[in-house]
């Protein structure tokens, strides 16, 4: 198909199938045709608002919409990338994914990699439908993390604030409960105080611990109907408790999440991991750059990456600033702090490297699974959050 007329009405998700390598240098003027105005709005937003996001990413490309047609022209390499982003966005929209500015930005980042997986397999995968919205992975690393939760019994999600590590783990827990894969969900986190002891705080025990557990409740309310929450909590189907309450227990048939694990001591981490019972899964999340432990106390999350690296059925997944799904500035802030921490702490990069090695293994496994599901490569056949 000549690149001067890229008919996207029946296109597959990869623009590479429409544009051969030898045609790419001449690909400065392509026409994308949509089947209807509704399809065009679903892909490009109302009043073509998402076109500005694409041209912001590819400044040497011009996009002109007229009727149900979109003309893409400009520097060949950037024009080809813009066409791929539009093609992937169209496929996602056709499968029910709401396309936002954030989706376009995620596609741009994802497609920068030469070995990027199919966007539909990442952004189109629905983890949970709760309270009228679908929860999905939104980056390649998040997809690898979700796959690791499916494939392993103990999973560590390590990354900065805003990368979705706890939220995605809770979505998987609720999905497992709904599918009757487990009979209960247990959510826990250490209560690390800034110079205050729980015993000196006013109120009942619940009043004292609730502020430390509130982020977990907030995430649950996003996924479960409010009317169901009191019943599930009262029945013990969902339990939210401080880490100290895990001691001496054996947790069978449960999906267990330990949040803020960077604030555990090595002894607490060992205690928690050895609570694992039959039919259970443990997800441990934390950020090694935000340790609140007093003095020279070692973080159990840092130590455990050295102790359990390479153990079968345990996965370490690292998320980074590119996976931040909050305000765009949060990613920049996280990156700046990581650079500063690396300069101050020589052990910081070594800890991240260990997590990255394990995460790389998980990523390779996930990509292999995607390839097997999709069959032959693009030359023969090719077919996210």
UniProtKB/TrEMBL annotation:
GO terms for molecular function: ATP binding. Pfam families: PhoH. Belongs to the PhoH family. It comes from the Bacteria. Residues 135-338 form the PhoH-like protein domain. Residues 1-26, 348-385 are annotated as: Disordered. PANTHER family: PHOH-LIKE PROTEIN, PROTEIN PHOH. Transmembrane segments: none annotated. It is found in: Cytoplasm. SUPFAM superfamilies: P-loop containing nucleoside triphosphate hydrolases. Keywords: ATP-binding, Cytoplasm, Nucleotide-binding. This is PhoH-like protein. The keyword Hydrolase does not apply. Its main location: cytoplasm. Residues 360-371 have a biased composition (Polar residues). GO terms for cellular component: cytosol.
């Amino acid at each position: 198909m000549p690149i001067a007329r890229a008919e996207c009405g029946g296109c597959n998700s990869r623009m590479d199938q429409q544009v051969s390598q030898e045609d790419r240098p001449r690909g400065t003027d392509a026409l994308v045709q949509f089947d209807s105005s509704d399809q065009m709005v679903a892909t490009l937003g109302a009043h073509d608002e998402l076109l500005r996001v694409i041209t912001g990413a590819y400044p040497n490309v011009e996009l002109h919409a007229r009727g149900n047609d979109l003309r893409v022209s400009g520097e060949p390499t950037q024009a080809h990338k813009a066409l791929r982003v539009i093609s992937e966005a169209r496929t996602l929209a056709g499968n029910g994914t709401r396309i936002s500015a954030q989706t376009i930005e995620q596609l741009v980042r994802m497609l920068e990699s030469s070995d990027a997986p199919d966007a539909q397999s990442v952004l189109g995968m629905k983890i949970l439908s709760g309270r009228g919205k679908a929860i999905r992975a939104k980056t390649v690393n998040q997809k690898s993390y979700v796959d690791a939760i499916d494939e392993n019994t103990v999973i560590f999600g390590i990354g900065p604030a805003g990368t979705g590590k706890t939220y995605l783990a809770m979505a998987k827990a609720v999905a497992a409960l709904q599918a009757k894969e487990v009979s209960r969900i247990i959510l826990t986190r250490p209560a690390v105080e800034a110079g205050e002891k729980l015993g000196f705080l006013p109120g009942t025990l619940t009043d004292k611990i609730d502020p430390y557990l509130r982020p977990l409740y907030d995430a649950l309310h996003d996924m479960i109907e409010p009317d169901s929450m009191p019943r599930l909590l009262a029945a013990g189907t969902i339990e939210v408790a401080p880490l100290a309450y895990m001691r001496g227990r054996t947790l069978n048939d449960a999906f267990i999440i330990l949040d803020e694990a960077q604030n555990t001591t090595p002894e607490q981490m060992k205690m928690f991991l050895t609570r694992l019972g039959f039919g259970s899964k443990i997800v441990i999340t934390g950020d090694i750059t935000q340790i609140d432990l007093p003095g020279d106390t070692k973080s159990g999350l840092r130590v455990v990456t050295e102790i359990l690296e390479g153990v079968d059925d345990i996965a370490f997944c690292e998320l980074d600033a590119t996976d931040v799904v909050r305000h765009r500035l949060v990613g920049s802030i996280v990156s700046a702090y990581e650079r500063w921490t690396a300069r101050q702490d020589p052990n910081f990069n070594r800890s991240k490297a260990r997590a990255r090695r394990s995460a790389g293994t998980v990523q390779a496994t996930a990509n292999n699974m995607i390839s097997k599901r999709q069959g032959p490569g693009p030359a023969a056949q090719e077919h996210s959050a």
